Amino acid sequence: MIKKVDNINMVPDDIKELLLPDKGELVAIGNTVYELQQFPVKKYFELLNLMSKYFTEYNSIYQEKEDQGIIEFFGKLAAKLQDLNLVEELMDTIFPDIGEDKNKITFDQLKYLLGVIYKLNFLSRNHQIQNMETRAAYNKMIQMLGINMMTA
């Protein structure tokens, strides 16, 4: 059973730090500005899945021929990404509700957007689990799942 805590003052500080921030980062897409928030875990794993697809294609093209030039390599990669609609899938994963604005994103806006996504979701502050019993249980769960993520 789980019960919502109504009085935030009763909550220990290490748990308060885990609450999502009220403010995100502003990003421009086409002629519109959006506020991008840190992803919840489901969206985070969707992004990791998308990255896995990208790197699978990247590696398969890279291993095709060792003597291919950089232009040929990136040409093949771009064609494959278009065939698989990975850019469209990226935009649908990150912004499912922005409609046609996603088709207006410029290359500079995409570069900025990718930087903000990385900053918010992969460079976030390391939230050390203060409770030693919970930290040990977390590490055991990670080992059990075979994830072997580095923990501090």
Characterize the structure shown.
The protein is mainly alpha-helical and 152 residues long. The chain has one domain (19-126). Helix content is 51%, strand content 7%. It has six helices and two strands. It has helices at 13-16, 41-62, 70-83, 86-94, 107-121, 132-145; strands spanning 25-29, 32-36. It has a two-stranded antiparallel ribbon. α2 (41-62) packs across α3 (70-83) and α2 packs antiparallel against α4 (86-94). The protein is extended, with a radius of gyration of 20 Å. The model has no long low-confidence stretch (mean pLDDT 82).
Question: Helices and strands in order, then pairings?
Answer:
Layout: H1 13-16, E1 25-29, E2 32-36, H2 41-62, H3 70-83, H4 86-94, H5 107-121, H6 132-145
Antiparallel strand pairs: 1-2
Helix pairs in contact: 2-3, 2-4
| Strand numbers in spatial order across the main sheet | 1-2
Q: Which class of secondary structure composition applies to the elements?
A: mainly alpha
Outline: extended
Q: How many β strands by DSSP?
A: 2
The radius of gyration computed from the alpha-carbon positions, rounded to a whole number of angstroms, is 20 Å
Helix content: 40-55%
Q: Could you describe the largest sheet, including whether it forms a barrel?
A: 2 strands, antiparallel
- Uncertain spans: none
Count of folded domains: 1
In percent terms, what proportion of residues is strand? 5-15%
Mean pLDDT level = 82
* N-C termini distance: 30 Å
What's the tally of helices? 6
Question: What is the N-to-C order of secondary-structure elements (H for helix, E for strand)?
Answer: HEEHHHHH
